[in-house]
Sequence to fold (150 residues):
Amino acid sequence: MLSRPTHVLIAVLALFAVAKAVDFVQIGDKLYNFGTTRYNWFQAYEACRLMKTQLVSFETVEEWSLVSDYLLNTSNNGSFWTSGTDLAVVGEHVWFSTGKGGVGALDIWAPNEPNNANGVEHCDIITLSTRFRLNDLVCSSKRFAICELN
Fold:
């Protein structure tokens, strides 16, 4: 039987191996992968889970600011899925990866968003066109993913 410190060391080494095998960027105190393949929201979620990560959930305005500044400074012109969604209850956006609400409380939505245009926008992206502020979008749209390693 392995001791608790040994279990922790093995877990840390396993996470490090995953981070080395996939291209991660350290921003603040977290590691992120900025995908290069376009997926719908469900495929993006699966792609992150296959890397032992999850779609990004911005827990603070500071975290969102660090990631959006990184994207602006790297001249990234893509749109990226987050784990934000209102699929469970229309109009109540939560971070699907964590199960936590409060997406709207962060005040990182683009102007006039979320708007659920035509009643079909239920998955949340950040995109250059809104200076990487949140926007709700049709979940079947193809976008890149931001996966975070916790």
